[in-house]
Amino acid sequence: MIVTKLTEAFGLRHPIVLAPMGGVAGGRIAAAVANAGGLGLIGGGYGDREWVARELAIVKDATRGPWGIGFITWSMRREVLDLALAQRPRAVMLSFGDPRPHARAIKDAGCTLICQAQGEEEARLAQEAGADLVVAQGTEGGGHGGSRSTLPLVPAVVDWVAPTPVIAAGGIVDGRGLAAALMLGAEGALIGTRFCASDEALGRERQKARLVAARGSDTARTRVFDIVRGYDWPAPYTGRALRNRFTAQWNGREHALAEALDVEQARYRTAADEDDYETALVWAGEGVDLVRSIEPAATLVARIAAEAEARLREGVRHVR
Ligand SMILES: Cc1cc2nc3c(=O)[nH]c(=O)nc-3n(C[C@H](O)[C@H](O)[C@H](O)COP(=O)(O)O)c2cc1C
């Protein structure tokens, strides 16, 4: 068993956190991860009230284990945060924006405040907000993020925010990644892409199948999916997704895409409805090389933890 400040804080059996992936991490997978001994975070995303209310009801019904919810800070409405807090999550994670205005409400509700940081500025804001845990998110990760790489970013964030505990994210898929994160000074790993390819993740079967077939070199950071979907993401955040015909057509031509939205938005929506992922979006991190199957989330949690423990024990043998 691996014991860290993260496992102690939540009474976890494993130092593994399900990333709060908007539209993917619903109540069912959050409960599956919590029941398997990790921390399950629902992906509150842009804060759709109905979606959040439905998934909160599901997680509460399906687990007595530790669960929480994450929001995209710049798009979050207070009313939706309050709705979530009323359901007594163990943790709220804020990412992409200034967490300070919301920190008091979260902590007064008896909730652990987790802030995701992509670099020094976000780490500073997390500290000022009084974050209980900071996620250091490397650019290798799937979905939105920044430009710093996980390997140098994690120990830097550990130093910047000490003594606040840090969780590593971005490119962690198996027990080797979790063991490496612990060696960098993190107290655990927050994992997204690997859990997208699980039975309980929301999302179309063809999206999951594309993840299983993809390589890390098929991914790229881009803004074009935000532009076409009408999301006004602030700089410096971009999203890592599988490259396809749509990214080939518009990457580097973002202004032209913005001018062609009348036609392109309709075309994009049709493609998404029809499961056409040569146009529509599949978020994926560079670690997708290591995603070779769709499995139950509990199987993934158990295997990642067991592999990490074995690696750590084996590592000691290198020391003379
Ligand atoms: C499909 C998908 C959706 C995501 N949505 C969110 C989100 O709504 N809020 C958030 O803070 N992070 C989001 N992320 C980023 C994760 O929190 C996390 O940092 C990332 O998945 C870690 O890297 P990995 O994908 O290599 O495991 C998303 C990631 C993916 C793959």
List all distinct small molecules, including ions and cofactors, that are bound in this structure: flavin mononucleotide
Which CATH C-level class of the largest domain is it? Alpha Beta
**Strands of the biggest beta sheet: in what spatial order?**
1-2-3-4-5-6-8-9
CATH superfamily of the largest domain: Aldolase class I
Q: How far apart lie the N and C ends?
A: 24 Å
Structure commentary:
By secondary structure, the protein is of the alpha/beta class. It has 2 domains: 5-202 and 292-316, TIM Barrel (Alpha-Beta Barrel), CATH 3.20.20.70; 205-273, no CATH class. 44% of the residues lie in helices and 15% in strands. It contains 15 helices and 11 strands. The strands form 2 sheets. The chain has an 8-stranded parallel β-barrel, surrounded by 7 helices. Strands 7-11-10 form a 3-stranded antiparallel sheet. Helix 6 links the parallel strand 5 (112-117) and strand 6 (133-137). Helix 8 (175-183) packs across helix 15 (297-316). The chain is globular, with a radius of gyration of 19 Å. It starts with a helix and ends with a helix. The relative contact order is 0.14. Bound molecules: flavin mononucleotide (FMN). The site of flavin mononucleotide has 29 residues, from strand 3, strand 7, strand 9 and helix 9. Flavin mononucleotide is lined by residues 19-22, 24, 43, 45, 70, 72, 95, 116, 137, 140-144, 169-172, 190-193, 196, 283, 285, 287.
